[in-house]
Amino acid sequence: SARSTEDDDDVSEVFLDHRQIGAQQELYMINPLTPGSIFLLPHGTRIYNKLLEFMRAQLKVFRFEEVVSPIIYRKSLWETSGHWEKYKEDMFEVGGRNEETKEEYGLKPMNCPGHCLMYDAAERSYRELPIRYADFSPLHRNEASGALTGLTRVRRFHQDDGHIFCRPDQVQEEIKASIKLVDNVYKIFKIPSYRLLLSTRPEQYIGTIEEWDRAESALREALDESGQQWLVKNGDGAFYGPKIDILVKDSNGKEHQAATIQLDFQLPHRFQLTYRGEDDTLAHRPVMIHRAVFGSVERFMAVIIEQIQGKWPLWLSPRQAIIIPIADRHVDYAREAQEKISGVPSGDRADILDFNISTFYVDIDDRASTLGHRLREAIKKGYNYIGVVGDKEMTDGTVALRPRTGSPLVKKIDDVRQFFIDSVARYE
Amino acid sequence: SARSTEDDDDVSEVFLDHRQIGAQQELYMINPLTPGSIFLLPHGTRIYNKLLEFMRAQLKVFRFEEVVSPIIYRKSLWETSGHWEKYKEDMFEVGGRNEETKEEYGLKPMNCPGHCLMYDAAERSYRELPIRYADFSPLHRNEASGALTGLTRVRRFHQDDGHIFCRPDQVQEEIKASIKLVDNVYKIFKIPSYRLLLSTRPEQYIGTIEEWDRAESALREALDESGQQWLVKNGDGAFYGPKIDILVKDSNGKEHQAATIQLDFQLPHRFQLTYRGEDDTLAHRPVMIHRAVFGSVERFMAVIIEQIQGKWPLWLSPRQAIIIPIADRHVDYAREAQEKISGVPSGDRADILDFNISTFYVDIDDRASTLGHRLREAIKKGYNYIGVVGDKEMTDGTVALRPRTGSPLVKKIDDVRQFFIDSVARYE
Ligand SMILES: [Zn+2]
Ligand SMILES: [Zn+2]
């Protein structure tokens, strides 16, 4: 079995793109009946859900409130937001199939207009700002079919989207916090390096020069305070506001746009959003900040898959461990190990699961083939830990653990579970 | 403040429907720009996410694998499934807005056809069955606008949907497990009583009498084994298979259809699904079981809201606790209590959150109004625990906790947190 590890290492010298790894690990599939819409298969969904769970935890720290907003909206919403006209080619339209009740809807390409409706559903006071909405809704954009590829160019995707509605004097704090969140997250994913790019007022713009100057200087100060390296692209902002793009470099040195932080003077105006100020009037317009840390969750998955070449850290791994009984007489013990380590009861114990219990993805391979064959297959599938159990382990209540990297170790069943819990808590 | 509890109790004698409670607790909103599509507001999303998190835990025990499947599919998929014709009035159609590339899509009203594509993406062996997919995708059904109401009659909703592809000889085990899962879940939600209804072969049916007899007897045996009360509605099955409906009775004695377990001989046939049998041929057709435990998550929320009259148990509550400092000099201590009990760091400690840490929704009310006023407001909002802190608590490192029901108690900050963790683990 030492041989096969070497084989495995040899194979991994070749750079694989996310589509190759995605197929190998059965993470996702695509079907011509819906081009550009990813089917996340069970193992891909495990990763996707973990990414969302991770982000939800961080959003709590940064005081975002998740919402679930609708997916179709009448044409008139998109006319108000400007998407119906400017985003025409990229939008799908929706209608009832009953001619009598037919209405024209747009399938949302972005969450922003829906969030404006939520903001606008109640009178807001300067005291309750900032309001920060997060949303993981599916988005649809009608990309040309020739451009569709893997997880990176798709028609249906999910963002870790967020919108902050704040007072002008809160912009700098919010930008600073957004950069901090990006930095926190990228550290966890060991993203080797990234650059912050500030794009400033273009020739065509809305709003006043004073608004722009104030916003840009807030962004510059937030960038300075971040301690990160940053650059300016003069005149490269959107017509509706300055922005900060975060470019991550993958292990090949290729840059991808992931996070973005974008000021918007326009949507609050188009939706006539206001808040009651200290002067007790509603003559105040909030600033809207669009921001995403992963950006497209699907594209972020692609970047991570390629960066780590499918070698998932334990916490994010869809295949955390597999237990292999050496012979038939070890199968029951292997099942016991599987159940105890995974935290997932089975059989007659398949009762309700405690709410806060940690669970792990632990498989078992008790097929009637040689140990060598099963080991090779488990290695190929990329399990973080392969646990072999035979007579000695059964007697001792242990598992012989073979980590994907590093030296083999023998641990008591309960200690394996605790070791997993501790590793995951540290994002290892 | 004893007065105000009584007031609160008086008010609760009046039965409120979920729309009233939903508005009072700011759980969701509706906007005419998208009739029948619910906007789950922050506090409603907390409940919704908790329900999904809860169900995901149970799905692990019952060996379902979650997937994320696409939302739009070409017309031809819906022709294969039969929905395009039979479900016409209820479906939304989707098209690109670019005339040149326009294609006809349907917005999915159900996940089943997409799951058939996933099943069919690889050759399946009798050994790997049952395959159990779970999916929480948004679904759209074009209900008549006059019928739309609250969370119960909507156009966009989410199911805790699941499809089991199994061999005929596995049907009974799968049905039995499905009933067990329903029972486990309903116990947690203290659903006072429910009835199981078996609907059998109607006059119009597909398949053979033998298939139906075998399936119905498998269902009967599973029902008998469940130990639950069950009834038969002869001839009331769908033309494509027998089913079990679970009717829950709310506190008013009104019955709602929630869970459903439905056998399907038709879709596997329409999609030409096969598996390789022990005889090494592909001449085997899996049975498909559609099942949902919550049913529509939105409707389930409505049932629960009315059943508990908005008095959420701690584990499911969107407002678990609020800390009220008696005077200005107690504000810092109140913040400390909030941070320690919630498990969510803030301010300079706003760093990455450990992955497995338990967090709670703990607010603070440090506004400059009287204690009585703040207490009354907190009671009205339905917090499970109101923690008051003053000089004595500050000195002792405690919080004076006032539960929504029961007697007040004083606890150390850390003990409050541990008490919350323990309560939630027991679904209290
Ligand atoms: Zn946006
Ligand atoms: Zn179905």
Jot down its keywords.
nine-stranded mixed β-sheet; 428 residues; 14 helices; five-stranded mixed β-sheet; alpha+beta; disordered N terminus; homodimer
What would your notes on this structure say?
The structure is a homodimer of 428-residue chains. Chain A is α+β, with helices and mostly antiparallel strands and 428 residues long. The two termini of chain A are 25 Å apart. The first copy, chain A, is 36% helix and 23% strand. In chain A, strands 3, 7, 8, 9, 10, 11, 12, 13 and 14 form a 9-stranded mixed beta sheet that branches. Chains A and B meet through strand 2, helix 3, strand 3, strand 4 and strand 5 of A and strand 2, helix 3, strand 3, strand 4 and strand 5 of B. Strand 5 of chain A pairs antiparallel with strand 5 of chain B. Bound molecules: zinc ion (2 copies). One zinc ion (ZN) binds next to loops of chain A. One zinc ion binds next to loops of chain B.
